[in-house]
Amino acid sequence: MADTVEAAKAAKPLNGTDPKFPIPYLGRSVRIVGPxxxxxxxxxxxPKNQRGELGKALFNWYHNSVSKDPLTRVSxxxxxxxxxxxxxxxxxxxxxxxxxAKPVPVTDAAAMTRHIKAVARYMGADVVAIARAHxxxxxxxxxxxxxGTAEDAYEESTPEGLVRKFPSIIVATTAWDYDKxxxxxxxxxxxxxxxxxxxxxxxxxxxxxxxKELGYAALRGVVTPQAAAVASxxxxxxxxxxxxxxxxxxxxxxxxPILTDLPLVPDEPVxxxxxxxxxxxxxxxxxxxxxxxxFGDKVAFNGVEKxxxxxxxxxxxxxxxxDQWTSCLTCATVCPFTKPNVWWRSLxxxxxxxxxxxxxxxxxxxxxxxxxxxxxxxxxxxxRWLDYDTGIKPGERACTVAGCTAAHxxxxxxxxxxxxxxxxxxxxxxxxxFVKRDG
Amino acid sequence: MAFRLGQLGIPWRRKNSRDDDPYWAFFINxxxxxxANSVPELIRSAPEGNIFxxxxxxxxxxxxxxxxxxxxxxxxxxxxxxxxxxxxDEQFPFAVVCAARADYDPRTSPGVGGQVPVQNGLFxxxxxxxxxxxxxxRATATPHARAEQLAAAAGLGTLDADGRLVTRExxxxxxxxxVILTDLPLAPDG
Lengths: 439, 190
Hints:
The complex is a heterodimer of chains A (about 450) and B (about 190). By secondary structure, chain A is an alpha+beta fold. In chain A, about 35% of the residues lie in helices and about 10% in strands. Chain B has a four-stranded antiparallel sheet, sandwiched between helices. In chain B, strands 4-5 form a two-stranded antiparallel ribbon. In chain B, a hairpin with a 5-residue loop joins strand 4 and strand 5. At the A-B interface, helix 4, helix 5, helix 6, helix 9 and helix 15 of A face helix 1, helix 2, helix 3 and helix 4 of B.
C-alpha cells in the first residue's frame, strides 16, 4: 500500500494541516501525528482481492467457492449458491430514494439528536453515536459499499468541501451474540457475526431512508467507520485493530456510517482504559492464528499513531479453512472487554474509567489475571447451537441432538461427544510455521 | 454460566423519552414521500432465490421444527409457530408463521416508524425462507390472506371478535409477518 500512499501524497495537498479544520481529539487510543492521506477504498483488501491482486487462491475463494453451510450461504457476503438468497444484495443494490422536498424544520439540534438516536434504537441498532465530521475521516475516490453500490451528487467534492456541507456523521451499529461468538472460527461464530451484519445493513438503509424523508441528505460510502467510531465515542481502538465499545467490547460491527447535514450535536471520545489495557494484555496477539497482530508498540501509519495489524497475513488464511468457517473473530472473542453485557462487566469498565491513569497498569494486571483464570489464556469453549457442535473434531461425525439416547451404530455415525472442549481450526501450533512472530 | 444477571438499575429513574420528542409523531405517522426510501418495499419487491440442489440431512420432524423455530427467533421473530395447511396442495404441506412485536399498529401508522414491525417481519421471513431453500426444500414467503387464522392455528394465540390475533405474550400489539409455505418435514403446533 506504501506506493499508493506516496503517489497520493505527491498528487494532492494533505489533510490535518489545514488551519480551518483543527486536528480532532480522538481519545487516548488514536492520535493524528502527521499529514493524513485520505484512504482509497479501492486499495482495501476486499476490492484488491476482487480484482485478483492477492493471488489465485484468494481470488477463487472469494468468487468461486460455495459454502457447505446453509446459513453461511444466506448470510455471508460471498460463498452463496444464489445471490438472490442473500438479503444484503437486495438492500445495498437498491436504488436510493429522493430527499424529501419539504424538510422538517429543526429548531433544537439536541432534540433532533435524541430523536435520531431513539429512532436507530427502535429500528434495532445496539450502539448509536454522532461524530463531528473531519476531512481526514473521508474516503478518497469513488463511494464504497460492500456488496452494493452508492452514488450521489457530491462525488466530485473534496473532503473539505464535503465536511463544510455535511458536518455530522451518524454511527449506528449492531452487536454480535456473545454466546455464539465463543465458537469463534466455527459456523456458530459465523452465525453471530453474519446475522447481525445483515441486520445492521437493513437498519442503516432504513435510517438513511428516514433521514431523506426528514428532508436532509444522507451520504453512504464516504466515511471511514473506525475514525468516526473513535471520534463519536463508540469506543477506543485496540491492539487488534477493532473498536472496543463500553458495553459490548470488540463484538460490534463497523458498518458504513451516514454522512448528513441534519443538525445534530456531536458526542465526545470516551476513555474506558483500552489504551492502558492493550499496553499490557496482548491476548489477541497470542491467540491470533496467523500472528497478524503486533506484540510491539504503536506505530505512526499514514499520519495516525495506532497499533498496526498485518491485514495481508490475516486475509491469506481464509481459503485454507473454508470448510470449517468463514470469519475468524478470534481477536474479538478473546479480548477481555468482550463479555456479556452484565453488571460485573460494567463494574470492571467503570473501575477502569474512574481509576487515575498512573494507577491503571496495576488494575489492568489484576483484571487480566482474572480473565486468564476464568476464560482461559486460549479460548476453547464448547458451544452447541441447532445441529452445530464445536466439540466434534473437524472431519469427524457425531450425534448432535441434545438428550439423545439412541445407540448410534452403523451409517458412519459415532456416539455423542462428551466434554467441554471445543475444537477450532487451524490450531495455533499448525500456523506458527507459516508466519513468524514479530518479536 | 452463573452470574448472568443483567445490568443493575434504578427502576423509577427510567422515563419514556418519546413523550418529549417533537418528531416522534412524524416518525410513526407520516408515510414516506418516496417509496424507494422504504426498506419494507425493497424487500417485498425482491425476487426469490433458487432451491439448493442437494437436500440437507435432517433429523425427525420434531427436531427440525425446533431448529426452524430457534432460527426464526434468532432472526428477530418474537413469536413463531407451525401450522399444517389442510388444502389439497401437495406442494406446500406446512406453514411457518412468524410474528413481530408492534408497539404501534402498522395498519393505522404508515410512517417509517410505524412500519418497523413490518420491516422486522420481512427480514425474518426473507432470511428464514432463503435458509430453508438453501437446506434444499421448497419455501416461499408470501403475504397470506388468512395469515391471522394461520397464526391462531399455529398456536400463537386466539382470534378476537374482529378476527385479530390476541397473543399471551404481547396481547394485540403484534404484527403477523409473511407466511412461509414449505415442504420441509415439520411437526405442526396447536
